[in-house]
Amino acid sequence: MFGSDEKSSKLKKKKSESTKDLSQVVRETTTILREELSNANLLTKDYNFDHKFVFSSSNDSGLGLTATGIKVNEQFLGDISTQYRSGKTLVDVKVDTNSNISTTISVDELLAGAKTKLSFKLPDQKSGKLDVQYFHRLVAFNSSIGLTPTPLLEFAAAIGSRELSVGAEIGFDSASASLTKYNAGIGFNKHDFSAALVLTDKGETLKASYIHVLNPVNGVAVAAEMVRKFNTYENSFAIGSSHNLDPLTTIKTCFNNSGKSAVLCQHQWRPKSFITVSAEFDPKAASAPSRFGLALALKP
User: Fold this and answer.
1) What distance, in Å, lies between the first and last C-alpha atoms of the chain?
2) Which GO terms describe its cellular component (predicted)?
3) What are the domain boundaries of the chain?
């Protein structure tokens, strides 16, 4: 239940969440269904047990470049992504070490409150997909359709207020005329805590998560997540914490029911540039060495 990537500033955002525009809260409800709430972020985000390097650069003309490399065991994986923004249009092209070329074209405000996104990957001729997102003050929805003769259709919607929001999503495979997924979630937000309850895996998995900011000044926060799998009668949980040693250094810890414990230290050594060291210990694999990871993110 440990993951990877960037600075955990969302903890500080939680203390002012009650002042957000309602559309932002509704927007976050759609991310509940994709497990991207800060509850899960505190337990997984930034943890990395490999060697990772990220370089990002942008200029005033709207051109950006991001290079990512990661060494997993003895294998090196990487990609180079370029982004170009002109007005309301953003073009993102990514090339990876497997010679895949991914392209995404996004257009903001094609209609009021709407965002359109076209994506495809070469050489996969069946990867084309069109997404349409709409955000209003109280409601948001996202629809997706595969650009194939028998497309995969997906639809997600959410409605809510600053404190309470609910959402659901559904997927339909037109080739087999069957549902590929149906999930639902509810989120409750206050200025110092938030909680979420999500039913996923076609109703087979129930996830409950909670985060509480104890001290917004130094970023002290705790989070917990419980997972119940109805088909296998399995239960699991994870608890974690975060604390800012100083304005530039963050310490995270995480522990789960299998006994695994992890710790992370992230330091912003220059503006928007971070170095992150992670370690994980598994008592059930005492004969195996503990895992360590180093991630370096540079942004001039």
Assistant:
1) 32
2) mitochondrial outer membrane; pore complex
3) 10-298
